[in-house]
Amino acid sequence: MSVAAALKSVEAVNSRDVDAFVECLHPDVEWEENGDVPGARVIYRGREEVRAWFAEVLAEPWERFEIEIEEIEEASPGAVVSGQRITALGRGSGVEIDLRFWTASWFEDGLVVKRKVFWTREEGYTAVRGQTP
């Protein structure tokens, strides 16, 4: 069930449907980005903050933005690890992005309650198997 919920949220991102995306999130969601980007915000709490993240990070800067799930597994009950690839084209700049990363997502009542980003598969699995939301 958690894998299907994770795929539904990616589908909403790819269709740029912020309302459908936010419906995939628990009201108390903690949405965490990778902290490797200087000056970037790392944690967004609650649906409204994640809605703002969607606009700032996903919608506004990109003419084209797509996430492809390369691998996905329910790694422990209620927790999913997925390997993802983003391809995007910058709006105005024409900069092309091709980026691979891993996410660990925890679910409650079929909704994402916590999400973290990692650069390696091992980090994602370690987070899911060694930590609870």
Characterise the protein shown here:
The protein has helices at about 1-15, 20-25, 45-60, 120-130; strands spanning about 25-30, 45, 60-75, 80-90, 95-110, 110-120. With about 130 residues, the chain is of the alpha+beta class. The chain has a 6-stranded mixed sheet, with helices on both faces. The chain starts with a helix and ends with a helix.
Topology:
Blueprint: H1 2-14, H2 18-23, E1 25-32, E2 43-45, H3 46-59, E3 62-76, E4 79-90, E5 96-108, E6 111-118, H4 121-130
Parallel strand pairs: 1-6
Antiparallel strand pairs: 1-2, 3-4, 4-5, 5-6
Largest sheet: 6 strands, mixed
> Helical region count?
4
Assembly classification = single chain
* Overall geometric form: globular
What is the CATH top level name? Alpha Beta
Q: Percent of residues in beta strands?
A: 35-45%
> Whole-number average pLDDT?
90
And the CATH topology? Nuclear Transport Factor 2, Chain: A
Summarize the amount of helix as a percent range: 25-40%
What strand line-up does the widest sheet have?
A: 2-1-6-5-4-3
Sum this structure up briefly:
The relative contact order is 0.19. This protein starts with a helix and ends with a helix.
Record keyword descriptors for this entry:
133 residues; alpha+beta; Nuclear Transport Factor 2, Chain: A; six-stranded mixed β-sheet; 4 helices; 6 strands; 44% strand
